Amino acid sequence: MSSKVPVSPSEVETASPVRTEPVEVLASPSTSSGRADSAAPLAVVLPVAGPLLTRGGWSSFIVALLVVCALAPALNLLVPEASGFHLSGYMVGLLGKIMCYAIAALAIDLIWGYTGILSLGHGLFFALGGYMMGMYLMRQIGLDGNYKNELPDFMVFLDWKELPWHWALSDSFIATLFLIVLVPGGVAFVFGYFAFRSRIKGVYFSIITQALTFAALLLFFRNETGFGGNNGFTDFKRILDLPIATPGMRMALFVTTGLTLLGFFLWARWLVNSKFGRVLQAIRDAESRVMFCGYNPLPYKLTIWTISAVMCGVAGALYVPQVGIINPSEMSPAASIEMAIWAAVGGRATLIGPIIGAFIVNGAKSWLTVAFPEVWLYFLGGLFIVVTLFLPQGVVGLVKKLKRKGNQP
User: Fold this and answer.
1) What is the 3-state secondary structure (H, E, C) of 189-202?
2) CA separation for the pair 374, 370 (Å, rounded)
3) What is the pTM of this model?
4) Phi, psi (deg, nearest 5) at residue 234
5) 64-105 residue pLDDT tens
6) How far is CA 215 from CA 161, 210, 313, 315, 369, in A?
7) Cα separation, 362 vs 384, whole angstroms
8) Distance CA 109, CA 380 (A)
9) Closest CA to 124 of 316, 325, 345
10) Residue 400: is its pLDDT beyond 50?
11) Are the beta carbons of 172 and 132 closer than 8 angstroms?
């Protein structure tokens, strides 16, 4: 006699707590004599996603939202410069730049912390998004350039007579928004498809991503590519036909960056707590077991890889108008390694950790490059070694460990 045998789903370790619900399943196991026993309910524990944020998490999120949208604009635009509470234009630009880095660190956490894919080439996607925005900003200069020509100054200097084909849509802001998403996402999709289909993983994948960004670096250095060569794009005048250097525009870019960071954080929380996110973490912990369970890792890895690249592209696009320049140095291997350091310092597979790590590392960098410029690189290398050896779970992991010790009797 056939029987219905319940099969328990494999448990996947997640970074956030997961609630469980008992579900009654009727089973009629056969006996050796062929006589069926009476149906008895069996409890099968199924994982259920927890809340998007805890009550304390929502409180912190609302505080961050108020700081970005209300407190910072008030301190910068309404408080007099002579006051000690005034937020200077320099600090607005610095914090806006660090928030762009935090978005990139969050993107790294999705692929490294939750999927186990270490990329040393995400600086390429950050720079591609920046170049898409930079092309639009260069077209916004118009006749206000040094040569009073519709062409960007570097093209006039190189005796170009017309815009190259890849500048065709650069005068449209709407088209630029699409390109900011499509160009980094397209490059990541093509590269990821062939890499993941070939089952390249671990350190080999990391080396290939580093080679990819270095090849792009050499390509963008060439003047004939039409991307400004070594100098890149700079001397921006306007965005959406509005002056870009005014305090109001700087604050608008700051608020936009902050809202983008908070939005990406919430969306990432939802993603990692979903079934898709649990499969990603299963791939991170035991990819071969995931395959034995009937899942194909390729679409999962390719999807999160492309999403991560798009997030970096958006971060780069927000970065350029605030910093005022984009050049090939943004896609250097060193820049991509720094992104991994931000995630490691803050704490992988936590989402909030990489954001904190980006603020810690770049805040220290801004201070040390002024106070002790000769020791900055030693500090960065030493920080990464200390985190690797003594803080494998980063700053967030250390805080959680101290809390557990404090709660013990």
Assistant:
1) HHHHHHHHHCCCCH
2) 9
3) 0.88
4) -160, -175
5) 999 999 999 999 999 999 999 999 999 999 999 999 999 999
6) 28, 9, 18, 21, 28
7) 14
8) 19
9) 316
10) yes
11) no
The CA dihedral of 56, 106, 131, 310, to the nearest 10 degrees, is -100
Integer angstrom CA distances of residue 271 from 58, 197, 207, 276, 277: 17, 23, 28, 7, 6
Whole-number Å distance between alpha carbons of 297 and 279: 9
The closest of 298, 179, 170 to 227, measured between CA atoms, is 170
Side chain identity, residue 199: R
Alpha-carbon gap, residue 326 to 310, rounded angstroms: 18
> Whole-angstrom Cα distance, residue 119 to residue 100?
18
Measured in residues, the chain has a length of 409
Q: Which residue do the tokens 């670096």 mark?
A: 217
The structure tokens listed for 295 are 């899942």
Q: With 0-12 CB in 10 A as exposed, 13-18 as middle and 19+ as buried, what is 322?
A: buried
Looking at residues 390-398, what average pLDDT do you find?
90
pLDDT digits (tens, 9 = 90+) for 368-390: 888 888 888 888 888 888 888 88
CA distance 56 to 73: 25
Structure tokens at 291: 């395959």
* Two structure tokens written together for 51: 């809340």
Q: In 128-151, which positions are buried (b, 16+ CB within 10 angstroms) versus exposed (e)?
A: bbbbbbbbbbbbbbeeebeeeeeb
